[in-house]
Amino acid sequence: MLRTARITPRHAFLQRPARRNLSGVSSKQLPSYLKILGEKYPIDGTTNVTPAILAKIPLRLHTQKSHPLNTLRCLIESHYPDFTHLSSFSPLVTPYKNFDELSFPPDHPGRAVTDSYYINRGMMLRTHTSAHEVEVFRRGDTKWLLTADVYRRDEIDGSHYPVFHQMEGACIFDANEASMKEVEGDNARLAQQLARSNIIIEDTPHISPSNPPQPTHDPRHSRIVAENLKLSLNTLMLKLFGGVAGASTENPLRVRWIEAYFPFTSPSFEVEVFFQGKWLEILGSGVVRQATLDTANVPGKIGWAFGLGLERIAMILYSIPDIRLFWSTDARFISQFEEGKITTFTPYSKYPSCFKDVSFWSPQNEALHENDFCDLVRDVAGDIVEDVKEIDRFVHPKTERTSLCFRINYRSMDRSLSNDEVNDIQAQVVTRLKDQFGVEIR
């Protein structure tokens, strides 16, 4: 849930047509379909998913026994025992389901082929667990947690990966006085519980002119529901971070709430936790848009929802320094974890880096997006690339051609790489760049 607009140069390319293929070969050699989870899907000019991404779909790390993401999922589910727990939805959804059902505006950057993975024009890999909100509400669930793998085209570094895992939580109530009185009773109970706990909460108004209730909602109901959301999540933050942070009377856990904007909630909030000397953004949340509930055909309801990234929290709780490690099959990683226990990860080695630069002129009248380059590198080199950085960009004053230079940091988490091995991989990257995007190497 809760995907924010990313204010980056990629917005300039929202209307840029897709101009990539799956393997760097000419379009005449491409297969006419993709086979995903046993089903065939035709490809078209929008297709931008790569073999490296397709290979991740069956793995479902959040369901693997003893895996840190599975342990974290189970820990959060145990905090909401009366909620329905869901974790088996297919990642393939329609753009309508991923965006339109949730009131995303037509020009939202998340719709762009530079931001999201498309199987074809009518099918994509979900970018957030909120893609299933309408579906779950429609089937009658009023309190639920949904965990799933989600997919977004992104840069390459130690905290970003094109596949990650989210948990969505939601709770809806009857929008009448009797129901709101029950919610107020729950609010009083949770407030008393927190008052006895080692936690300090920096709050923000439940509703305000800058974070308003929805026009169709009774402002009092919206305030009560927003308060219930905050209290419920404050208890979750205490459960997740209180023990690891060593929360005590002298050193209580600190949580703060910040006004936010999301297309599918209002009012909306972000939650931050003060951990190891700095504020860390943990999740987004808010009162569910009435349009979402109307689309799900559950009128007369009001409720809240939140979404959090499991990797982000697991990296904090387990002290895992690189997001690639979650995908490692190295026994030195896997053996450190036990089902149901949060333990501090012990790094087993830091292998040397090998930096390689590639400079090129972009094709005339075309723009090569950074995410296109990163996807190409991932598809060639896999997880032996630690990060990719754009280190130079300029436009020739006479030809108006754009020159780009990227620095690739090759470093395996499991072994030392030879210079010859890296040179061979770098040569494949250069060849793919020329064949797939028509660049001129400098």
From TrEMBL:
Keyword Cell membrane applies: no
Superkingdom classification of source: Eukaryota
One Pfam family per UniProt: tRNA-synt_2d
InterPro entries attached to this UniProt entry: aa-tRNA-synth_II, aa-tRNA-synth_II/BPL/LPL, Fdx_antiC-bd, Fdx_antiC-bd_sf, Phe-tRNA-synth_IIc_mito, Phenylalanyl-tRNA_Synthase
PROSITE patterns linked: AA_TRNA_LIGASE_II, FDX_ACB
Keywords linked to the UniProt accession: Aminoacyl-tRNA synthetase, ATP-binding, Ligase, Mitochondrion, Nucleotide-binding, Protein biosynthesis, Transit peptide
Domain FDX-ACB: 349-442
Gene3D superfamilies: Bira Bifunctional Protein, Domain 2 (3.30.930.10), Ferrodoxin-fold anticodon-binding domain (3.30.70.380)
Single GO term (MF): tRNA binding
Record-given protein name: Phenylalanine--tRNA ligase, mitochondrial
